[in-house]
Amino acid sequence: MDSESPDSKTSNAPDWSVSELSGALKRTLEDAFGFVRVRGEISGYRGPVASGHVYFSLKDANAKIDAVIWKGVFGRLKTRPQDGLEVIATGKITTFAGKSSYQIIIDTLEPAGVGALMALLEERRKKLAAEGLFAEGRKQLIPYLPRVIGVVTSPTGVVIRDILHRLEDRFPRQVLVWPVRVQGETSAAEVAAAIAGFNALPEGGRIPRPDVIIVARGGGSLEDLMGFNEEIVVRAAAASLIPLVSAVGHETDWTLIDHAADLRCPTPTGAAEKVVPVRAELMAMVADLSRRQAGAMRRLSDRRRSDLRAMARALPGPEAVLSGPRQRLDLVAAKLAPALARNARVHEQQAQGLAQRLARQSPTVRLAGYAARLDGLSNRLRAGRDALLRAETLRVSRAHERVAELNARATRALAALLQRRQERIDALAERGLRCFTQGVVRRRDRLGSLGALVASLGPQAVLSRGYALVRDEAGALVRSAAQVQPGHRLSIQLADGAVSAVAGGEGPARAPRPARREPPKPGQGDLF
Q1: List of domains in the chain
Q2: What gap in Å lies between CA 48 and CA 399, rounded to an integer?
Q3: Contacts of 223 (CB under 8 A, 6+ apart)
Q4: Residue 265 φ then ψ, to 5°
Q5: N or C: which end of the chain has fewer CB within 10 A?
Q6: Per-residue b/e over 184-215, b at no fewer than 16 CB within 10 Å?
Q7: Is the pLDDT of residue 508 over 50?
Q8: Do residues 146 and 210 lie in contact, with contact meaning Cβ atoms separated by under 8 Å?
């Protein structure tokens, strides 16, 4: 038995190095696909990098191929590539040895229509915009200096570290991180649940409620960012009562959550810069404002002191101040005595007028006037009473006459009504009698017909035609000759009476066989 294994045997196949194999594959692909036209949707577009080259992928529903446009070719293109654009690319297939992958080197690029994903996103954007979720009037202001910042992102990515570092550099604040997947099938539901969860935190609870929420993710292709274009995420962002900042992707990336958010930032780092100010700048500004306030207070004090001195110099002396009032006092004192005399005369005239008015309003004069008015009113009352009495008497007499007339008319109308009702009752009684008589006659005729029919169909009529009923000693009907034995006593029922008989002969077996009849039905027997 050979002790050597197959692996130890020497092979005739040459040994390839990795570089030689990659080169052979490259030449084979380039020879077989020297010129191709490929139609697909641009995905993962990265604009001109530092070298000026452009990298992206062409994809359809089932496959994807990497694509490269060199710097010199990119400058001559009439159609600029962008994510979601469906294009027809012309170039050659080659390999990239560093990644052991194949790619297309593009020479020309032609637009072929908007990609399916971009068309879907545009339709969804229009639908949500029509519902008012992107309206500027519903967007909230971002707080200037929030106490707590909520961050919805992946806890293991560089995004959260960039946000924390930027907040630490600018103004350290308490940060609550809600870990979610930012890519994949469940990312949209997790992001929407995180936004709703932050909004559900109570004020003053064990876990502090954020003053602002940052939804952050790094850059990526359109497919990688699709979780932030889902309707559930957009509606959750629009329904958030806490101001929300969207920081998804790079500056050129746009998602639907950017339209619904209260503020859109191009990068997660930019979001951290937007939600908090720079602490050093605030301290410098406060110090500058303090210096300016102290200087302004000093200048105000100096200006008030100088104004006070100027006003003190402008004030007159006591003699100058009192001279005017003294002259006015002397003038008033000279006018006081004549004014008092005139005032006394005026009050005397007023007292005389009041005395005259008081005499006219004395109780005696007013009592005499009231007595005269009372006499006049008494005369008017008696005259009115007499007139009213006469009018009421006349009205009552007229009413009696009208009542008598109405009573007579009612009596005549009642008599006429009773006459008409009596005539109608007589007519109805006559008609009812005729109908009853006719009904009795019809029912008597019908009863006679039914009696004749019953008599014709009864057993007595059948017996009158010559038939007979035969009964045995027990009184049971004899339906077959086999039931009768010689010597049995029988009763024969005829139409006009019954007779007795005794069965004779040798027996039913030698009697002629009757015709076969159907078995009798339950109930009355067949008479025929």
Answers
A1: 19-114 (2.40.50.140), 134-276 (3.40.50.261), 464-498 (no CATH)
A2: 117
A3: 43, 44, 117
A4: -115, 145
A5: N
A6: eeebbbbbbbbbeebbebeeeeeeebbbbbbb
A7: no
A8: yes
Tens digit of pLDDT for each residue in 321-378?
Answer: 776 787 788 778 888 888 888 888 899 888 888 888 887 777 877 788 888 888 888 8
130-150: buried (b, 16+ CB within 10 Å) or exposed (e) per residue?
A: eeebbeeeeeeebeeebebbb
In this prediction, residue 299 carries a pLDDT of 92
What single string gives the DSSP state of each residue in 168-209? HHH---EEEEEE--SSSTTHHHHHHHHHHHHHHSPTTSSSPP
Distance CA 280, CA 266 (A): 24
Nearest to 215 by CA among 152, 142, 149, 139: 152
**CB atoms inside a 10 Å sphere around CB 43:** 20
| pLDDT, tens digit (0-9, with 9 covering 90-100), for 13-43 | 777 777 778 778 778 877 777 788 998 888 8
Residue carrying structure tokens 């008081």: 358
Which two tokens mark 177? 């991180």
Cα(219)–Cα(37) distance, integer angstroms: 29
pLDDT of 209-234, one tens digit each? 999 999 999 887 777 888 898 999 99
Which element (helix H / strand E) includes 259? helix 256-260
Share of the chain above pLDDT 70, in %: 91
Quick check: helix, strand or coil at residue 244? strand
**pTM, 2 dp:** 0.42
Closest C-alpha to 176, from 146, 152, 158: 152
Residue whose pair of structure tokens reads 């936004």 in the numeric block: 195
